[in-house]
Each structure stands twice: as C-alpha cells, then as structure tokens.
Amino acid sequence: MGHSTGCQDIFSYLLTSPSDPDHAIIEGAILQAPVSDRESMIIQPTFSQESYDTSVTYAKEFLSRGQDQEIIPRSILSWFTTVPCTPQRFLSLASPDKNGAEDFFSSDLEDEKLRGTFGRLLSVRVPVCILYSGEDEHVPKFVDKEGLLRRWMRIAMEDGAEQAGIIDEAHSAVISGANHTLDGCTEGVLQDVIRRVVGFVKMCETIKDLNDGLQCSLS
C-alpha cells in the first residue's frame, strides 16, 4: 500500500517487476491518494510560472553537465520544497514535457501515455485498488476525480490495448470527504477506507488460493 508519492513507487515497481528477477512477487497493490505532483505544484500558494520555469531551466542545465545527482540550491526550489532535491528528481516530478518518470496520475495525460502505464497491468498480473481522496487538497479543483478514475479503469481494461490490465472496480473509488492524508477525517470516511482495504485484501487472498489450487492440480 502506497500513499501519495508512495503510489508512484508502487507503480514503478509494478511496471519493472516482470523483467527484474530480484523483485519480490506481490499479490496486490493499493494506491491511496495518488496525485499528480505537476498539477499539485500549480495550486501551491508560492507557485509562479516564472519560478517554475526557472527551476526547470536550472535542473535541465544541471543534467546537460552530467550533474543529475547534485542538489539544486534551496533558493531555486524554495517555492516548491525545502527538502533537498536533485535535478533528476525535480524533473521527474515537475514533468515539464509530460514525460516525467513519475508522471503517472496527471489528468491531462493522453490515452497513449496511459496505455504505457495503466494498460500494462495485466502483464504484471497484480490486482490494483485505487482509493482517490475526494477532498484532496493537493488536487486542483478543475480535475474531475470520478472521470479520471473511470478513465484509468477504462485504459486498464481496454480490449484494444496492446496490454490490457485490471483494477478492482468493487473496492476502488473516489472517497467522499477524504483529504490527502485522511488526518482529521470523520469516522464514516475512515470506516469506508478500511472496508475497501479489507475487502481488497480478502479478494487478493481468494485469487491466491485459486491460483495455488490450480498449480496443485497441474502438478
């Protein structure tokens, strides 16, 4: 289960695990509060297009000199974060050309881009549950959360895609009343999240039992 940028970690793991023999096999993945860092940046009170453009230019210049793991000066990124950040990491999050390594969840990504991420889930053979916070303060108001979730599901289950995928429709949802961290949410909201997580885990256990039974019958 990943939260916020942890959702990006999970997605990266899922998309690389089939080709990496060192990756442990997982039986299910939960994305709690997946958000676009690129879209989150523009609603920060300290955001300005000039600051963003300056940071992107600075980071790209570092990369051009082979300094991808250097730390960007705090004065350049103070509008965004006080946490030390490398040029490679910043561009992965800021995704100025919509091609950042971690730009999985932006609302303006084209279907073809999503087919390279959500559309590859079946090849990974890992069920995914998405719990999108309905009142996430890091998501711009112009984002249609329900529509975005439906779009991810459509791409993941699209018969015409080169690699179709699977998302647990029964437990995935936009959680009404949920903020980004679930901190301070009502008991009803928390119980809704818990119910969905438990239901998803039970579903994954059922799938595992069925697969184990199939393997036994074939051996």
Descriptive key words:
9 helices; 219 residues; 45% helix; 4 strands; 7% strand
What does this structure look like?
The chain is α/β, with parallel strands linked by helices and 219 residues long. It is built from 9 helices and 4 strands; from the N terminus they run βαβααααααβαβα. The chain has helices at 5-16, 37-41, 49-64, 74-77, 87-94, 111-115, 121-124, 145-156, 187-218; strands at 2-3, 29-32, 128-133, 173-175. Residues 160-164 have low confidence and may be disordered.
Helical proportion, percent range: 40-55%
What percent strand? 5-15%
Separate helix tally: 9
Widest sheet, order of strands: 1-2-3-4
Distance between the termini: 33 Å
**What does the main sheet amount to?**
4 strands, parallel
Give the H and E element order.
EHEHHHHHHEHEH
Point out poorly predicted stretches: 160-164
Shape assignment: globular
Computed CA radius of gyration, to the nearest angstrom: 19 Å
Mean pLDDT: 90
Structural class: alpha/beta
Q: Got a strand count?
A: 4
Kindly summarize this structure in a few lines.
By secondary structure, the protein is an alpha/beta fold. 45% of the residues lie in helices and 7% in strands.
Task: Provide the fold topology.
Layout: E1 2-3, H1 5-16, E2 29-32, H2 37-41, H3 49-64, H4 74-77, H5 87-94, H6 111-115, H7 121-124, E3 128-133, H8 145-156, E4 173-175, H9 187-218
Parallel strand pairs: 1-2, 2-3, 3-4
Helix pairs in contact: 3-5
